[in-house]
Each structure stands twice: as structure tokens, then as C-alpha cells.
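Quiz preparation item.
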């Protein structure tokens, strides 16, 4: 299969990549990230620990890794309309927290809105540009407060 785009040519800004490092325990980082994203206007309707599941099911030996599925309901509603419901396949906007080492957690996020435009799931029009900008501002606010 040939990819329609060359991943090595994608600038992290093109996918809204954000990353931060927190000096705290994994559990404290999860709580902190959840609080910060909630304060920025996101809900967290989905959250789970892939590392716990993988360690239990296949004895993967993974370090702590947690996913918060963040969602701003107003923006999500507009994005579903703008993409003829296709964007739902990428929801929620995941923020992941993994333990790089004890007491050091990495928080990582990419914009599903930007990725949807790159792969053709979302239109490249003014409405989607506004949605991308709105979510970008919310994520920027959250990362600024981490």
C-alpha cells in the first residue's frame, strides 16, 4: 500500500502536535491533565489505560500509559456537521500520558481536526478552518496551564 502522503514531510504543526513533560507521579499527572483540560472547556467522556489492559492480557510489561478522550461538545457538534459525521471515527480528541521514568510523565496530543483535513475526511473550507482554530485555542490554553 502506498501512502497518499509522505509522513516524513509532515511538520508537527500540520497535525497540531503538542507535548509537555510533567515532574510528578503518573496518577497525579492523570488528575492534573484531566483538570487542566476540563478547565479549558473539554469534557473527558472516555479514559482508559492501554498499559494495564496489555499487561493483563498479553503480559506486555508496559510502563504506565493512559488515554484521556477529551471533547468540547460544541466544537464536536460543528465538526460532525462539517464532515458529514465522518469525524466521529476519530473522536474523542485523545491526550495521552505516559511515564517516561518514575516521577516524569509525558503528555502528548495531536489534532484530530487537522489530521482529518490532511486525509480528506474533513473539507478544506472556512468552516473547518474555524473549527481547527477553535480547538487549537482550547488545546493551547490547556497546554499552557500544564
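Solution:
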Amino acid at each position: 500500500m502506498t501512502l497518499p502522503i509522505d509522513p516524513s514531510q509532515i511538520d508537527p504543526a500540520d497535525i497540531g502536535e503538542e507535548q509537555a513533560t510533567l515532574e510528578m507521579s503518573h496518577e497525579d499527572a492523570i488528575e492534573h491533565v484531566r483538570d487542566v483540560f476540563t478547565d479549558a472547556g473539554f469534557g473527558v467522556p472516555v479514559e482508559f489505560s492501554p498499559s494495564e489492559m496489555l499487561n493483563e492480557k498479553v503480559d506486555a510489561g508496559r510502563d504506565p500509559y493512559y488515554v484521556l478522550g477529551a471533547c468540547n461538545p460544541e466544537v464536536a457538534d460543528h465538526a460532525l456537521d462539517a464532515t458529514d459525521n465522518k469525524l466521529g471515527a476519530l473522536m474523542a480528541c485523545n491526550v495521552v500520558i505516559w511515564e517516561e521514568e518514575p516521577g516524569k510523565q509525558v503528555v502528548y496530543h495531536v489534532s484530530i481536526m487537522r489530521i482529518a483535513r490532511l486525509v480528506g475526511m474533513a473539507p478544506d473550507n472556512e468552516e473547518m478552518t474555524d473549527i481547527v482554530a477553535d480547538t487549537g485555542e482550547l488545546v493551547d490554553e490547556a497546554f499552557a496551564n500544564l
